[in-house]
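Quiz preparation item.
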């Protein structure tokens, strides 16, 4: 389904109206970066490194993927249940011995429960659209607009809508890309037999959560919080901070070291949920990688996995001639795509009982709210096209295709390195259903 610009503007106005006439949210109001960047998948977007322009002798001629997670949202219904369970325990305490808990005497939980995009999330996506125009406007024109898609989830559609409006605003409304909604490769539940990360996150929660629960129980006699409550409760800090555009009082209940421990909980969740640690994790990203390869090479999409054959064999719903593509999805699906590509590979699987300070798989750097992966195709002196990948502006070392010091692989080497995707998961996709 394609949404015309009028519908996009109307939808954006409905989302953005929630913010009223207030100034755009500023994420530095929430908490110091050292704390914000320990909120795992609930971290607001930040550039991990400054953007690196192409090296001398190369120019970007195509952006074959601008893959972005939806913006900041309210908790999902499941997350809300965990938050409320812990909150009710604290509020049932007979007294508070720590003044940081006094606000709970008159506190009422008021966050949404269905994972809906919040005004700050809308703002994040609009800003991303403006940034994309500033960086890549030389690639597009009214005759060659960005091709923009979103999974069917409301928050990804809303995020894509705000991105397209941001792009339009930055172009003085000359470039108004439509939005295509619904594509299986952008959904995040395409492997029924895949396991979960519960076993691994449970081990770590028992280790780091118990001391925190004990401390809070001492400060709130009768609360009887458990270690399991802690991993469910800490997210109220980032959720409420983003929703209210101010640091939540719940953030003061945890130390920077405890937030860092929560970060590792989030790392384990993504690694063993749809990442390298899940036997059927990276196969969930194979369909999207094959679409990326088709865009890079101009060849038909390899079918047989999550790819929707009806959409991807129709040049209207899956064109190969655009110079800029933007796709909106979820963090779980992005983790699977990273693993399918070979990004952020670990020397060893993450240990559920002991964080490795040198690990490359860190959720806040991989999939923050509005996090993004960009795949640029470059024309370089010498003739052969090249590819480079950036995640949250950090240039990725593509060892799997022999990248040089500028992070460049030849297009041919990059395509050849994707044997797992080109082999449709080498039998793993069938295991999702049998």
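Solution:
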């Amino acid at each position: 389904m394609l949404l015309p610009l009028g519908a996009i503007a109307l939808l954006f106005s409905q989302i953005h109206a929630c913010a009223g006439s207030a100034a755009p949210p500023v994420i530095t109001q929430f908490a110091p970066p050292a704390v914000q960047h320990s909120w795992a998948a609930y971290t607001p977007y930040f550039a991990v490194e400054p953007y690196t322009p192409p090296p001398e002798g190369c120019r970007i001629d195509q952006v074959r993927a601008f893959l972005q997670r939806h913006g900041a949202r309210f908790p999902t219904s499941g997350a809300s249940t965990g938050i409320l369970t812990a909150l009710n325990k604290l509020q049932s305490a007979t007294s508070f011995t720590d003044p940081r808990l006094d606000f709970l005497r008159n506190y009422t939980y008021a966050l949404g429960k269905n994972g809906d995009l919040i005004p700050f999330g809308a703002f994040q996506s609009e800003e991303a659209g403006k940034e994309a125009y500033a960086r890549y406007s030389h690639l597009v024109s009214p005759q060659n607009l960005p091709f923009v898609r979103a999974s069917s989830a409301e928050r990804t559609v809303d995020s894509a809508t705000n991105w397209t409006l941001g792009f339009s605003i930055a172009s003085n409304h000359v470039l108004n890309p439509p939005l295509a909604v619904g594509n299986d490769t952008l959904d995040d539940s395409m492997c029924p037999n895949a396991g979960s990360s519960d076993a691994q996150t449970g081990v770590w929660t028992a280790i780091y959560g118990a001391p925190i629960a004990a401390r809070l129980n001492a400060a709130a006699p009768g609360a009887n919080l458990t270690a399991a409550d802690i991993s469910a409760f800490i997210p109220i800090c980032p959720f409420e901070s983003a929703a209210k555009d101010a640091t939540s009082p719940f953030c003061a209940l945890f130390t920077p070291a405890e937030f860092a421990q929560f970060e590792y909980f989030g790392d384990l969740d993504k690694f063993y949920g749809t990442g390298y640690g899940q036997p059927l994790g990276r196969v969930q990203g194979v369909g999207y990688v094959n679409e990326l390869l088709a865009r890079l090479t101009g060849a038909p999409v390899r079918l047989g996995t999550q790819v929707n054959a009806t959409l991807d064999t129709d040049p209207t719903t899956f064109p190969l001639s655009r110079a800029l593509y933007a796709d909106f999805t979820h963090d779980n699906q992005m983790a699977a795509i990273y693993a399918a590509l070979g990004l952020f590979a670990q020397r060893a699987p993450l240990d559920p009982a002991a964080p490795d300070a040198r690990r490359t798989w860190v959720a806040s750097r991989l999939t923050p709210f509005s996090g993004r992966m960009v795949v640029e195709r470059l024309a370089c002196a010498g003739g052969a096209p090249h590819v480079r990948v950036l995640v949250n502006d950090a240039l990725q070392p593509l060892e799997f295709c022999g990248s040089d010091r500028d992070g460049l692989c030849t297009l041919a080497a990059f395509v050849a390195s994707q044997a797992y995707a080109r082999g449709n998961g080498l039998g793993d996709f069938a295991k999702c259903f049998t």
